[in-house]
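Can't attach files on this board, so I'm pasting raw text. These are the components:
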Amino acid sequence: MMNLTGRKYYINPETLRFEEKKLSLKRRLGNSLIIASGLLLLAFVMRLGCEQYAKSPRLVYYENINDELRSEYLALNESIIKDEAQLADLKRKDDRLYRSIFGLEPLPASIREAGTGGSPRYNSLQSISNPDMVIDVFNKLDKVSTKARIQSNSFENLEERAIENQQFLACKPSIQPISPEDSYWMTSPFGYRSDPFNKRRTVHHGIDLAGPYGLKIYATGDGVVVSAYYNKHGYGKEVIIDHGFGYRTRYAHLQLLLVKPGDIVKRGHVVGELGSTGRSTGPHLHYEVQYNRRAINPLFCFYEDISPEEFKVIADRAL
Amino acid sequence: MAKSQYKFNPDDITFDKVDDSLRNRFWRVVIYVFAALVLALLINSVYILFFDSSKERQVRWENEELQRQYQILQDRKATVDTVLNEITRTDENIYRLIFETEPSDKNELATTIDPYNELMHHSDREIVFSNANRLDSMLEKSAQEKLEYDILRIKSEDKSEMLPYIPAIQPLENADLSRTASGYGYRIHPIYKIMKFHAGMDFTAPVGTPVYATGAGIVEVASRSRRGSGNRIIINHGFGYKSVYAHMNELNTRQGRKVNRGDVIGTVGNTGLSTAPHLHYEVLINDEPVNPLNFYFLELTPDDYTRMITISKKSGQSFD
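---
Top answer:
Structure tokens for the assembled complex are below.
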């Protein structure tokens, strides 16, 4: 059955008949093309208008992500600023506290501010909109990371130094060789004196501390026993301890040696007993401190500010 | 003349003329335009569905770029954080080695970092209200305090002559308190490693840093020694007050000289029984050592005081 309702007719004035209005295929194609391109044009114009005056949901979505990303940069920036503050704090401690304790000059600014050069390293970032903030974060992080590296090196040195310093303080002869609990007295000071045997003016390289036979003699700093035998040149039974850092101590005229060469001793370790061996006129200890092979005044190496109880603590720790 | 159009009516088998009145045409145009718009919209939607607009493309590319760079940034930041942690650890270790105690900066920071945090949880009204209340009570209190202060002032007037003489500043430049090292009280001795009473306060400073007289007075002792306190100055301020400066390098004054507060009397050193360049400072009243912490009142604000107390308390080891 032919459906006739949709068709259009017109009166052909020549034949006076109703004739169906028919269009050639070409015309029809042409018409559709015009309509289609018209529609597309319309769609295009619409699109331009939309883009100009309205945001597509997707653009809004993208822009939200963009904002979020940027706020993450800002958050990172905040945290970098905190790092900077922390570094500044550490730098101050480094300069003002640690370096002054170890008698070191603060790191010069030329090292601290070692720059990385202002070359445009973030070319790919230049093409985004408002790149300044992002580049700023990068630059800041670069600076902080350089500073952190320098600080890290500095602290590593200081740490070594602190450990060394602690070893130094442990090793340096710095207590008296006889406990304050025991009675002793200084019979001969350091320096020129008249020799007890030939009465000639000679240099005395240590101090003489007189006391009863058998008094315990203590190592005055951590170290290694380098000799513990009878010295034929007058020192009698002596102990020599090498403390490192240039320091050596001699404990001479002992009656009994309680250590042997190679022993590692701690400050407060009993190394022998007081006696009168060798070139000696009576029971006493000859205590000598050498720094870089030269005898120095042992009085500068201890200070009688330790109570007997405190001395006992030190001696007990050496066991 | 426009040709009239006809439509075939199958019901009564006639050709009906198509109504082409102006109104009708108008409506047809409207429908066409509407249809065109709807179609255009449809096309647009389809287009949007599958393609990004130039703006969207730009923003999307930017997002990718930002994301990419952020990754890089984050990686670098992680490295910096690791280094920072390492530094902090080393710092603590150095601190421990020097002072024989745990550094307590962390707790200090936590308490001072955000005193207003709790206010954040209140509404503006609450804050205004409570502030108004507080202000009222403060005004009341301050009036009361003024009265007490006036009484005190009258009482103290005859003592005001003492003021230039009593030790009242720090013995060296230490505005940021970073030179404060070890306080008064029991401390681990750096050499003996035993607890000993530390009668003064230690300030770490490089050798050569100027040392100031903390009050006017007469130099009682200016002695050089390689033992004990090293090069030492004692100033007699009168009224029973004395101040002691030990382990100095140079002494710029002599026994019997008169000094005023702030005069440079010498420089920081490392003399005597000292393990590091520092100034050991003591205040004596009637020859008994007292805590020097109480004698910086002309220089320190109450906040500084609180900080100084924590700093000087926490160091477990002195320098001599």
